[in-house]
Amino acid sequence: MSDCKTMRLTLVPAHTRTEAVLFASLLAANATPERVARLGLSGAALTALLRRHFVQPLPGPEGWPALAAGLPTPAWASNAIFVVEMREMLRRRADPMLHPADAADMATILATACLRPDHLWRDLGLTGRDDVTALLTHFFPSLVAENTGNLRWKRFLAEACARAYGRAPAPAPGCPGCEAYGECYVHLRQTVIPIKADDSSAH
Prior knowledge:
- The protein has 11 helices and no strands.
- By secondary structure, the chain is an all-alpha fold.
């Protein structure tokens, strides 16, 4: 496949709904075979997403249709349970006005990003936390309203997912590799209890 600089990757929205803008920003930031695979969508899901939101380009060997056709089957190995649970939790919390497939696709993208070891906005290829906040606010507004402690989004999503399944809050699989892990999870550091010197000889 050609280098992304020469590929016809223009995305022309087919409507004015916000979903097209948000999906376009994610796709534009991940417009190479390697990066688009990191979104976690299957080829069929990405193809359907493109058809829902964007004007379809003429058939050809390059561009988004080719990227979608070349996507490998998503594989999460030992993190499959986390991804499935996170996707389901997010899907249930989606704005009911959304197309169910849009909610499911965004849930998949977010769950997959939580496996990677960086801030969520970097994992998604966005420019900052505000981009993630805007995305989450549109797709999952009731969930966003619960982040009253202004936690980092990956931590918040992981903890919300754990609570949804009746478990104690825990880091996402990608959190331990993040530069901010020690700051986010300082409460998980082992507490060292000093051992008092044996003063029995003084008696």
